[in-house]
Amino acid sequence: MSAPLEAWLRGPIAGVPPLLQPVAHALLQARDELHEALHDFPPALLNERPAGVASVGFHLQHLAGVLNRLLTYARGEALSESQFADFHAEVPPLSIAPDTVQQLVARFNHEVDAALQQLKATPETSLAEGRGVGRAQVPSTVIGILTHAAEHTTRHLGQLLVTAKWVRSLA
């Protein structure tokens, strides 16, 4: 059996505006690759940091947290207290339970689903609208934030994939 097509080759995502299709495809591809890499990942390895690199656990928390925060900024909203608490909780090490990997993957899945819903609700006419990022309200645009959300997700996923393979090889 051949490998499934990458997300961008599967066609348009229903309801997502054409200019936001690349963002949706990147997020769906990240989800696919995360599932493939971590379907049987040992929870005991989540906090491992070979050569001082960020742990798989950090990347898993960070993927979901940053996606959530960036989508908030794209909507023109300020972060909530719970989002700040989540941000501060991303600092390793994680408390490890037998289902920690599944919980973190499920949280990322939830954030990707929320992102897809937000993309569907984002009119293309709003993409050039200004948005502030962070407490300093650094200027960006709706499309700038959404594009960065996809790019940031793929960057951290790549780091997670390499680290996961590395720590498994050392175990």
UniProtKB/TrEMBL annotation:
<dbReference type="InterPro" id="IPR024775">
    <property type="entry name" value="DinB-like"/>
</dbReference>
<dbReference type="InterPro" id="IPR034660">
    <property type="entry name" value="DinB/YfiT-like"/>
</dbReference>
<dbReference type="Pfam" id="PF12867">
    <property type="entry name" value="DinB_2"/>
</dbReference>
<feature type="domain" description="DinB-like">
    <location>
        <begin position="27"/>
        <end position="160"/>
    </location>
</feature>
<protein>
    <submittedName>
        <fullName>DinB family protein</fullName>
    </submittedName>
</protein>
